[in-house]
């Protein structure tokens, strides 16, 4: 049953934080993203019983962008096992930008630093299960269907827009290909990667995915284990250490919730259950999805980040 | 009361993991460290009631080295408040080595990436409370005395050895000085920094410090709040994201305990209480100290890391 | 008329230097180059009257590879004027490798450092005169025909081999495309670039090209000005400062002849006339071509470099 | 006998180029330099017979700064031989700034890239002949006395100003010390280095030094060989490839005269004799000294560089 006090708080905080949208701007390098209304801010929280708290601009669909990186990582691990995937990609944070080539050229690592920088994400996309690109893409959608009970679809306009302007990702992918770190041809790996980035999702569905991650791969509503606890643990480590681009450390310190952001302005967050005995909101965990398309120079939604900061502080949601 | 089964497990695991010492070597650049017996391995765990589990080579004293970085960060925050300190040093992980100048020169940040790389640690040492170096050093010792009820002392041989060979740290400190990021003269900042690195500690005392961090600054034995929960939270974020040098991400994924290592072979770990209802060891949290001086190329104790990995897996101690 | 003493000296020096081939190896990343006999060493010198001194393995054809970079630079300048080309590419040496992305990402220059690193060479290839790739390629061949009176052709096997394995060059080109520094589509720019690298040439023809560069674009045999003195000056500056990959400075100090090397093992050198009054060999200038396919880690022919060093010392050919 | 037409031209060009001083500013990081009148511009040319052409602000004394790097390199080579010095420092240009640590940390070279970046210059200063700092400094002055027949002295105010603010040079020197590339203690090496930078010189004396370098170490007036031709050759290579900081390539292309600049606004240039038969000014070579303290972001005098560009173009002084 929905707690009315929580809704009330959320409504107040949404208004408090909407003003932070002016500190950011919509992602300019993808025309289809640039044209969104930057003033939107919406949040959707699903508690452990499936109750939904929806406040603000919640009737939206947006593309996953980098949020997809953590989902394809989980999907790849679910199919191949964690060891296989960690043999292709490391789990170390890097202080460089998500699309930097510098660490590769300086350190010549035999695998990307982590699956949440573009190089690592492309590497993981290339090993998604499936004999060819349509099969890989289909398998990813099928995997996500286990979380939300429906088939997601791709925003074709965003896909085409990204495909044409993916120069930097092509540079990264060819760099990986040169050192034999890519299991597909470059153009194929980019196709599956940009397809996954262009998957369109609602706040309600994204919150459900967050809930399953918070519950270590277990769906507390359907009571099914969707993926293993071992994978969930590494996924949450990645979200904490690398999930918010180059302000992941700051987000961990001030919010402390495993999360992954995307340049479309979406944030996926997973609040694990806590033992605290007081009458805390969401003490049995929840999934959170936020959308606000004005992003900062790191790539994170400005108002979305501030809203999560307030939630975490007020409700003591940090895992630290 | 001590649980005999736990002692038995620890004894078996110590022997399992001692062989990993051959994968490392004692730190060569500090003569006083180089000459230690690399085969040592000892662990000390203090539970929430102050019960000590000591197994292996536990009658040792070793210098804090980089373990001191998290302690001086806490001390500085306790005196100045978190905001003041975070104005001098960021909390972002970096993929570069702990003593790298590259990220500074590329990004020209106005503050070091985090207080656990050398540049950040020197910056924090420089703002320890106290009018001069002896006062700052004394205040740090006084702060640590609140955790363990006794005054620690400095290993003069190690201090002198490090002072003479601290070329790289001097390079870093002069680099910081050039961009006005250091609140002391370079040689003074280095003196307090190298002094804190040279503080000698026992496993028993280090475990107690870990317990207080695990309890968010609260000492569950004396029932005193030694430092604030807000500081403890950021300290644990730093330990998870940057505590184990350039394998912090790997350690978080496979161990998942906030920890800080030093090149002397010591590791400080803080296991927060968990809500799990099963009869888990240390479910009410504990502090862990490990010592094994053979370190890997990243600077972490090889056997110590492996031992913590086994503990975490067997007892489910990960916070993720 | 040929000076028999010079031939004698050359024959002796060829034998002296052939042993240096064992210090290098044929370029492994291009299969068609890897399979050459690494023990070959040949030189061809054309004096200002067109007299040819040919010693060693001189009946060879090899692909231009990076030697083509200086030729397409001259061709582009000849068509567009020097200012136009220098608006697209700088003339500064860089300490990084010829295919490095680091300087671009650190400094974000609005143009490549110089036309002899791959990024600069691809940029220049893209502005070769011609409406499309075949026309650009044809115009380059037509320009080279002015030097040697015949049409050069492409080694198709080398071209196909390079096209398939050009991952790093694709990475560079997409990087340039992202910052709008490329006047063609990436795949088109790469096609013209790899075509020019795959042009096959003889030592005799390459020596003639060297002679014209030595004479500031004037052909002392046909008495025609093929390109302007202004362009020749910049070309020679580039050859001295950046012509021998990352040992250009060493080559300038110990050889002092404007030169450009390629990974196929060829070196193009241009010895300008000097005022010295003594009876020096080639005091009226000459063009030199060397071929020896065993290259060092920088990409320069080992025996070829040593042979030029001996020639320069014995005959005082340095411009410094 | 002085050519009046040359004086006339120089006077006109000085006025043409003085306006370029507004494109730069005096070096801010050394207070004693910052306070100079930025509008000054003076040139002094000494021809092969010792005739002096002095135009503009010529009654000035300024500190050598980086101009001293090429002089201490020559002095060190003169004492130890070229091979000994080239064993301590390379002769390769680098695209990074003169005080960058990036190339050291990325490539971990066993010696600095060249003696004209700060790291290389400090390395060379450390091997100047002499048992201690005063002796080394005295020997450098004695060596310079051979060129100009008098003892230079140090600007104590500049020395003290630089000594206090030399944080970046200290960082570089400690970095070198860590990899055992420095033959002196860091503070000693810095003392001799900063002393040499602080030597005060007149335009007339600097022009004479340029003349001797132009004549390959031979003084055409006293008819004495001051240092060997072999050393002069490498010195000129260094001046062409690295003498004008990060616009050395551009200067070589557009001026083409071996030169070395300093942040005080001085430029030392050496015009070697040429064989051209026409009635060219200074066809028998000359030494040039320019002073104009407004420098650009690379560290080169703005008006001084433009003036040399005009001279070279009008009188065809380029060696290329």
TrEMBL record, chains A, B, C, D:
Keyword field contains Signal = no
| Domain of life according to the entry | Bacteria
Q: Which reaction does it catalyse?
A: L-glutamine + H2O = L-glutamate + NH4(+)
Q: Does the keyword Disulfide bond apply?
A: no
Which Gene Ontology molecular-function terms are recorded?
glutaminase activity
Q: Give UniProt keywords alphabetically.
A: Acetylation, Hydrolase
PANTHER family named in the record: GLUTAMINASE, GLUTAMINASE 1
Q: Which protein family is it in?
A: Belongs to the glutaminase family.
- Under what name is this protein listed? Glutaminase
Q: Which organism is it from?
A: Fredinandcohnia quinoae
């Amino acid at each position: 049953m929905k707690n009315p006090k929580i809704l009330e708080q959320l409504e107040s905080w949404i208004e408090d934080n909407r003003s932070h949208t002016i500190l950011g701007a919509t992602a300019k390098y993808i025309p289809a993203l640039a044209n969104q209304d930057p003033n939107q801010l919406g949040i959707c929280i699903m508690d452990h019983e499936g109750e939904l708290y929806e406040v603000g601009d919640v009737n939206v669909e947006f593309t996953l962008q980098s949020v997809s990186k953590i989902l394809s990582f989980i999907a790849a691990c679910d199919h191949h096992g964690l060891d296989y995937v960690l043999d292709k990609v490391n789990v170390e944070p890097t202080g460089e930008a998500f699309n930097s080539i510098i660490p590769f050229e300086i350190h010549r690592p035999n695998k990307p630093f982590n699956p949440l920088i573009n190089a690592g994400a492309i590497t993981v996309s290339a090993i998604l299960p499936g004999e060819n690109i349509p099969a890989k893409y289909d398998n990813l959608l099928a995997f996500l269907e286990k979380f939300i009970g429906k088939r997601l679809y791709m925003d074709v306009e965003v896909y085409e827009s990204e495909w044409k302007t993916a120069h930097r990702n092509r540079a990264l992918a060819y760099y990986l290909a040169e050192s034999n770190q890519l299991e597909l041809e470059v153009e194929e790996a980019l196709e599956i990667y940009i397809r996954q980035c262009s998957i369109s999702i609602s706040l309600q569905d994204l919150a459900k995915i967050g809930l399953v991650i918070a519950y270590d791969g277990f769906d507390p509503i359907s009571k099914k284990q969707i993926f293993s606890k071992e994978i969930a643990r590494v996924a949450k480590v990645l979200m904490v250490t690398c999930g918010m681009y180059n302000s992941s450390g700051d987000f961990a310190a001030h919010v402390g919730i495993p999360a992954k952001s995307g340049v479309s302005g979406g944030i996926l967050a997973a609040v694990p259950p806590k033992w605290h005995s007081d009458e805390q909101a969401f003490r049995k965990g929840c999934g959170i999805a936020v959308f606000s398309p004005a992003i900062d120079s790191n790539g994170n939604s400005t108002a979305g980040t501030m809203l999560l900061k307030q939630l975490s502080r007020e409700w003591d949601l940090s895992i630290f």
